[in-house]
Amino acid sequence: MSKHYEQSSFREKLIEHLFIGEILKLSWLKGDCQLEVMKPEVDHAGCDVVLEDKNIIRHIQLKTSKLGAKASSQKVNVRLANKPSGCIVWIVFDEDTLELCSFYFFGAEAGKPLTGLENAKVAKHTKANADGIKAERPNIRTINKGQFVRYDSIEALYNVLFIPKS
User: What's the whole-model pTM score?
Assistant: First the structure.
């Protein structure tokens, strides 16, 4: 068994901390050190971390995949659309070095609410019930990878998270 499978919870938390560390480091290097990081005590809306900078609050659902993984979609909680500037950040990492390689972003411009979930496919449970039926998960939607925008640097992602276009 692969350590990535056996220790997936550990790995997910590690990648989350690496992501937060990289984004904090960027705030430091930019010289303003204004980025605030908050962690929800309860994950009711799919939010893993809340980041605030330049009066923009981002409720972020984090997803991860190792480099070369075949994942073509992610499941997203619809309640994220009710949060200020809710978004999904899908982190691709190198399984040997745990280096963060690229970031896929699904969300609106900084300061705008998340849209695009209303017409997305309702997700189903991965396991079937006793009758062989995979029940729908009414608060979860499936977002295809093609709907995400790829960024190859933490700085490019930081800019889309916190700098409004206009």
Answer: 0.90
